[in-house]
Amino acid sequence: MTRGLFITLEGIDGAGKSSHIDALEALFRERGRTVTRTREPGGTPLAETLRTLVLNESMDSLTESLLVFAARREHVLDVIEPALARGDVVLCDRFSDATFAYQGAGRGFDLGVLSTLEQWVQGGRSTRPETLLQPALTLWFDLPPEIAAARLAGARLPDKFEAQPVAFFQRVAKGYADRAAGAPRFARIDANQPREQVWQQIESKLRERGLA
Ligand SMILES: Nc1ncnc2c1ncn2[C@@H]1O[C@H](COP(=O)(O)OP(=O)(O)OP(=O)(O)O)[C@@H](O)[C@H]1O
Ligand SMILES: Cc1cn([C@H]2C[C@H](O)[C@@H](COP(=O)(O)O)O2)c(=O)[nH]c1=O
Prior knowledge:
The protein is an alpha/beta fold.
């Protein structure tokens, strides 16, 4: 059995990820692939319970980091790894890049500690970098924080993160840019375009990489 394809969608809140995930799923299904669609924090009953805490309760940044990685551990073991072993396309709305961007760059939490947690959660007990579970492709929706805030205003009640000031999202956006630099799995999508053009960029990134 050929191992599946792991694709993540990343970006600041309001960047437009969720608006394109249905079409992405449909595209792979039309090509005969089985799609497992999931999200972080979340994706299992326990991880969804942790999500509710993380998105709604105020907490220390180490506590927040431990909770998102605890949720991820459950998600990786129960959903992502089994789906990849079956050969599925796994479409995941956020993964560990979000932790480096939000807890690391946004909150200012220690990136070295996050890397250690990442190794534990996504690498089992091995310290070899090649054993770390990472997406094959990360679609990074890049949008200026002021525009994301304007898009979200009035769209829904803000959760704990969405209620953060623009300065927080400027740090998160830089966190994503730093993470993307030199990581070929990142495909930058200029999300400051009408929906149709954003979708065309997604299709073109998939084609360039021979994934669709
Ligand atoms: N290209 C676009 N142009 C204008 N508005 C858009 C565009 N894409 C999405 N939107 C709108 O912006 C808002 C945020 O979009 P969406 O929920 O897809 O973002 P998101 O990245 O999934 O956010 P979050 O991570 O906070 O869930 C929605 O109201 C959506 O309708
Ligand atoms: C995975 C992950 C997520 N977050 C934050 C980012 C968002 O504000 C929320 C998730 O909400 P969404 O509407 O599903 O995008 O959680 C985080 O801070 N750290 C993480 O690792």
